[in-house]
Amino acid sequence: MRNLVQPAALLASAAALACGDGTGPSLPPQFSREISFAEFEQAVTQGTIRLEIELEDDLVASEVEIKQADELEEEEELESRVTAIETTAGGGSITLALGGLQVEFTAATKFEAENDNDLTLEEFVARVEAALAAGEEPGVEAERPAPDTPQDPDDATFVATELKLDDESEDDAEIELNVDDDNVAECSTLTVAPAGCLGVLRVLGLSIAIVDGVTELEAEDDGDEGEVDDVDFEGLVSAVDVEEGTLTLADGTLIRIVSDTELDDDSGDDKQLKSLAAVAEALAQGHQVEADGKGVVESTSPRVIVAIEIKLELEDDPDDAPVAS
Q1: Which of 101, 270, 316, 322 yields a CA-CA distance of 20 to 30 A from 195?
Q2: What value, to the nearest 5°, has the Cα angle with vertex 105 and ends 121 and 87?
Q3: Which CA distances in Å does 225 have to 29, 84, 218, 231?
Q4: Where do the structural domains in the chain lie, given as residue ranges?
Q5: What is the CATH number of domain 9-29+225-314?
Q6: Cβ(293)–Cβ(245) under 8 Å?
């Protein structure tokens, strides 16, 4: 497939999506700050915390972020690629590329397609089986209610109350779980510790290395101006204003892009758009474009969200109507 984003006109608004170039408006108070491994260990010893762990298939964390305390009661999540699926009477399990972790599902599990449409258990299984038979490993997002106390580090059980097919989960894996000091171990517990290993996160029976120079350690920070919570947003783009640096979603939500907005930029993904100009061109060609990310609610009427991070992606086949030649 041809590249959708060309180096000339279609990248004219790339600066609007650049991260921290020193021009244009910036986000409200800083949302996360880098911390040392010592600060991370101290935070874990103080009680239960919510972690967001991003990692590759080799079980080395690329980023570990301590979330705000009010997220402890939110759904725990896994994102990864599916490598196998098995069914039983009224349920079954999927095997993830994430360390071979198995996620169970039942007749009570809610199933969704990439477009958020509901699926039956049978439809979900059929779609996954078809993708696997075609040599693909479909991405999936699994959710469950957060337990009252963090799950034992050696317990690999994860029974999903919701399973959603998710193209975004085809690349890096992600774990969002509640943990405490029982989940942190020494590098000596690994059979072969990677160079620069600082410590190990033990979750769901997996051993995830935290490595100096590889793993970014962060903590969400409310800043000095009072508590500010981030929100997730997702939807089809109905309009774009390149000059103003805004996107309008189908539900009327206005997403504002600022100099500190982080753009999810996967150069190997032909469906991923890298500028607002590219989004405008895609819409003009009749494509559907989805915006997915998180940000801060700037106003509620009208609803305006300042994007902290955003991913812009074609929802249809780019070969059907190429955005640019």
Answers
A1: 101
A2: 65
A3: 7, 48, 19, 18
A4: 9-29+225-314, 33-220
A5: 2.40.50
A6: no
Residues β-bridged to residue 94: 85, 103
For the segment 207-227, what is each residue's pLDDT rounded down to a tens digit?
Answer: 999 999 999 999 986 554 444
β 303-314/262-263 pair status: parallel
The amino acid that residue 74 corresponds to is E
Residue 12: name the closest of 270, 278, 263 by CA. Answer: 278
For position 86, what pLDDT does the model report? 96
To the nearest 10°, the Cα dihedral for 269, 270, 276, 282?
-150
Summarised one tens digit per residue, pLDDT across range 117-131 is: 999 999 999 999 999
Q: Which residue has 């939807």 as its token pair?
A: 235
Strand partners, 32: 220
**Is the whole-model pTM more than 0.70?**
no
CA angle, residues 97, 98, 104, in degrees to nearest 5: 85
Q: Which two tokens stand for residue 40?
A: 């991370």
Does residue 64 contact residue 51 with C-beta atoms inside 8 Å?
yes
DSSP 105-140: EETT-EEE-TTS-EE-HHHHHHHHHHHHHTT---EE
User: How does strand 91-96 pair with strand 272-273?
Assistant: unpaired
Return d(Cα 280, Cα 154) in angstroms, integer.
49
Spatial separation of the C-alpha atoms in residues 189 and 185, rounded to whole Å:
7
Query: Rounded to whole angstroms, what are the CA distances from 108 to 78, 146, 159, 225, 252?
Result: 18, 17, 11, 43, 33
